[in-house]
Every structure is written in C-alpha cells, then in structure tokens.
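Honest question from a wet-lab person: if I give you the sequences of every part of a complex, can you actually get the arrangement of the whole thing, not just the pieces? Trying it with mine:
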Amino acid sequence: MLLSSAMFYALASVAVACSFLTIMRRSAAHSSLFFCGALLATAGIFLQLEADFLFAVQVLIFAGGIAVVYFGAGISARRRTSRHTARRGRNIVLAATAAVLLAAELCYSLFAARSAFPGVVSSLSIRNAQSLAALLFQRFLLPFEMLAILLVIAAIAAVIVARERPE
Amino acid sequence: MISPGHYLILAAILFAIGLAGALIRRNTLVILMSIELMLNAVDINLATFARTWNAVEGQVFVLFVVGVAAAQAAVGAGIVLAFFRKRSTIAADEMDLLKW
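Yes, you can. This is the full assembly:
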C-alpha cells in the first residue's frame, strides 16, 4: 500500500518534471530527451494501473519510436538563430495563465465530481492482454484495420514529404 | 492507496503543461512534442477509467491514440525536416509558405 503510493508519487513527479523541462529547454534535442523521460514515467504509471500491455506499447512505440523520431529531427534541424526567443515575453505570460486556468478548472471539476468515482479499486478481474486482444479483434476490428491503413498512409506520406527533391 | 482522482489530477497537470508548451514555444518540434504530451495525458485518463470500471475498452482506445500519435510524429517530423531544408529554420512563425 505504502510502497505503491510512494511509487505513484515518484513516477508522477518524474513525469511532471520531465514534461516541464520538455517545454522549457531551448534545444529541441534536449527537449526530446526529457520527452522520452516523461513517456517512460507514464509507462510506469500504466504498470501501476495494471495495464501491462499498455506499458509495453508505451515503452516500445512511444518512448522507443516516437521520441527517437523527435530526437533525430531535433539534432538534424538545429536552430539557426535565437532571435525568436526574444519575442517570447508576452506570450509566455498569456500561455502560462491559460495553462494554469485549464489545470485549475480540470482539478475543480474533478473535485466537484469526486462522488462519481469509486474511492479505491481493490483487484482487477480482467485478464489484460487476453481480453484486450479479444476486444481488439472482434468488436474493434474495423477501427483497428483503419488504424493500420492510416499508419501505412502516414509512413508513405512521411517519406514523400521528407525526401529531397532535385530543383 | 492511490485513488483514481490522483491519476486524473496528474493527467490534468500533464495536459496543462502540454498546452503551455504548444502555446509558448516557437520551435515546431517542441510544439509537436507538447501535443504528444497532451495525448499522453489523455492516455493516462483512459487507462485510469479502464482500471476503475474494469472495462478493457479504455485500453483499446489508448492503443488507438498511440497509433494516431505515431502517425502524427512521422508526418510532423517529415514536414518539419522538409521545411528546414527549404528555409533552414523550424520556427513556427516562419511557416508561411501557404500564405500570400
């Protein structure tokens, strides 16, 4: 009990700190490393939520695939000048206010609706990967296939967009 | 013991950080990463609901969100690299190729 609480708070603080550093670091390559850290902390949270398969998916696809794509793009497209950081002053106040307001509003609505949630869930009766596969390949078969087609289209589009055209 | 509310508040905070990043930054790659952070926060919500109500459907939706995020990363990074090749910058306010 105590251990799982401690794990949650540790993972949550790592996730929040890494997300914050992701948006605050100047270099996109550094940002992507902290982004990877935030995703790995989220993977740990999935493990705490007894979503084992999602943990694997998060580590393999999100942290292993997506973060690496951003890291590669970040180190190959290095910023040439730093002049656009000078005009950040007014936006940062507005954006921070918007974000804080959104977080406060979400927390308030969660607090107002707290009676709708069961306090503590004792043990999970679902078998994770097995029931996930049963749902995925029966009830959600069409969306699953459409996702596969979408990914193929995205891969082809990425190759076409990023290739070098002879002028 | 951790209640579902803790996870939901964590997800709300992560979503707000992602929103702030998407609004503050001018680096397009960081904006894309911030959007991914917001999707990631939604994933935490869905997994929490799946756990709370013993419904695996929530986890299925997390898989779909991860798939869409992967597609977004591939196309987004491709567009950013193509733009960088053309203009040698990835600042969001320089992205005006479709304006006239």
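Two things worth pointing out. Chain A touches chain B through 87 residues (CB under 8 Å). Chain A has a mean pLDDT of 84.
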